[in-house]
Structure formats: structure tokens, C-alpha cells
Specification:
There is one protein chain. It contains 15 helices and 4 strands. By secondary structure, it is mainly alpha-helical. A two-stranded antiparallel sheet has the order 1-2. A hairpin with a 2-residue loop joins strand 3 and strand 4. The radius of gyration is 23 Å and the shape is elongated.
Length: 289
């Protein structure tokens, strides 16, 4: 299989083409080789990414929507009464979530490249799971607001981080379908979250009755899921242990091909952030990849 891959799958072709973007040219673009990956190998790599990465991201997105929306189920089961959420207090608690959620989105995408998405995404999951769990112990309105604020802070960088993570494994024409696959968890969260909350609201123990257990149990599930995900999500294609050696090599090569010279390296972990490409996007929005 290795010799077949080398002879048929990875036929490197030297490129003398130079593409200019504004006043700058990507460094070493002339040296970048366009690699043709054997279609059978490409399909096998994509299938293994689909079965080893997408299910974990589906679960993360499912838990994210369950944990952000379970306050509605808790309200039905006595939250508003116990915390005396009269007037607009409940609506304010809902709105507080989105303030840090919006503000942290872009900065979070810079951080995810530094720490590695395989650690950062489960880390966010663990963090908001702890916050959700702590929500079950709040005794007043101020505590609820604090928990909602930190929940939004932890979840804010999730979607952008997940898309950035997928872009390290899939070529651009493959991304849309994969994003749709994990995004299907959002509507399903309403069904699962409601059924789970119905059962949890029957628990009465140690002075905590009904609604606190929705947050405690669902938050605990989120924390455990995050701890397990750390050991299964690969950092980059070159770190994917579920691929064979030649498949890892091909996976790295095809991402270099997909970059079209936008980066001087074919390894996604070696890519650096550049304000130049941000300015190109703003100046020339008509340019398509």
C-alpha cells in the first residue's frame, strides 16, 4: 500500500506560478508543491476523520445547547419561585449570558491556536460544565446572574473554535457538510434536554428539590464528557493515531494543497497568525479561495 501511495497517490508537481495579493506575495510560494492524493486514500482519510472527530464535536455542541437552555426547564420546576425572579429578572438572567458570549468569540479563536483545539475545546466544555453544576447551588438572584455570565464566557469561543478545528482536518469543499453534521445537535438538544429535565426534576435530596438537580446532573455529565474527549481528539492530522503512517502523511499533504500558498508550511500546527491576511480580506472581499 505504501509503494502504491507513493507512485499513484502523491505525484508531486513543481509549480512556477506566482500569485500576488495586494502588494505582498506569500513567502516561498514558488517552492510549494501541489500534491495529488489518490482518491481512494483521500476517501479513507475523510471517513476516518468523520468517525473519530465529528461524533465528539456533535456531543460537545449537544451539551452546549442543553446547558445554555436548561434554565427554561428549571424555571418551570421552581427556579423562579425559589429565587424570587419577579418582573424582568428572569429575562435579564437570560440576556447576561450573551454579553460575554459575543465579546469573547474572536479573541478565543486566537487562543485556540496557541493551546491546541484538542485541549482548548474540551477545556471549555469542562469549564462551563462546572459553572452549570454550580448553578444548582445558587441561593439568590445575584448568584444566578454570575453563573449565567460565566457560562456565556466559557461557551463564547466554542463555535468558532470548532470550525477552526475542523479546518485543520478537512479541505474547504468538505467543511460545510461537516459543520452541518455537528450543528444538527442544536435542535436535538431541545428534545433530550426536556426529557432529561423531566426526570431530574423529580429528585428531592439533601435540601435540594427539583430544579437544582437539572443543573447539577447535566453539568456533571458535561464535565465527564470533556475529560474523556481530551484523550480522543487529535491535535492535527499528523497527530491522528487512528491513521496509518502513510495516511497521516497524505492528510498533511492535502491540507498543504488546500492552502494554495497562503502559508509557507504544510503543517497546520506551524501556521502563524498574520494581520496581512486580515487586511487582504477587508480590502478585497471579492477574492474567493
Amino acid at each position: 500500500m505504501d509503494s502504491n501511495l507513493c507512485s499513484q497517490g502523491l505525484n508531486a508537481k513543481a509549480q512556477n506560478e506566482k500569485v500576488e495579493y495586494g502588494e505582498k506575495v506569500p513567502p516561498n510560494y514558488d517552492e510549494i508543491q501541489q500534491v495529488q492524493v489518490d482518491p481512494a486514500v483521500n476517501r479513507r482519510i475523510t471517513y476516518r476523520f468523520d468517525t473519530h472527530i465529528i461524533p465528539w464535536l456533535f456531543g460537545i455542541w449537544l451539551l452546549a445547547f442543553i446547558d445554555r437552555s436548561n434554565i427554561g426547564n428549571a424555571r418551570i420546576d421552581g427556579l423562579a419561585t425559589d429565587l424570587k425572579l419577579n418582573g424582568d429578572k428572569f429575562n435579564v438572567a437570560l440576556a447576561v449570558f450573551y454579553i460575554p458570549y459575543v465579546l469573547v468569540d474572536v479573541p478565543s479563536n486566537w487562543v485556540v491556536k496557541y493551546f491546541g483545539a484538542n485541549y482548548y475545546l474540551p477545556g471549555l466544555l469542562i469549564a462551563w460544565g462546572i459553572v452549570s453544576l454550580c448553578t444548582g447551588f445558587v441561593k439568590d438572584y445575584g448568584g444566578l446572574l454570575a453563573c449565567r455570565f460565566f457560562l456565556g464566557l466559557c461557551e463564547g469561543g466554542l463555535l468558532g473554535g470548532m470550525i477552526l478545528y475542523l479546518s485543520m482536518f478537512y479541505r474547504r469543499h468538505e467543511l460545510l457538510f461537516r459543520i452541518g453534521m455537528f450543528y444538527c445537535a442544536a435542535p436535538l438538544s431541545g428534545a433530550f434536554g426536556g426529557l432529561l429535565a423531566t426526570g431530574l426534576a423529580e429528585i428531592r435530596h439533601s435540601g435540594y428539590n427539583r430544579w437544582p438537580w437539572i443543573f447539577i446532573v447535566e453539568g456533571g455529565i458535561t464535565v465527564v464528557y470533556g475529560l474523556v474527549a481530551i484523550f480522543f481528539l487529535p491535535a492535527t492530522p499528523s497527530h491522528a493515531k487512528f491513521l496509518e503512517d502513510f495516511e497521516r502523511e497524505a492528510a498533511v499533504y492535502r491540507m498543504g494543497l488546500d492552502a494554495h500558498g497562503a502559508t509557507p508550511t504544510s503543517k497546520v500546527e506551524s501556521e502563524k497568525f498574520s494581520w496581512h491576511w486580515v487586511s487582504i480580506t477587508v480590502k478585497y472581499p471579492q477574492i474567493k479561495s
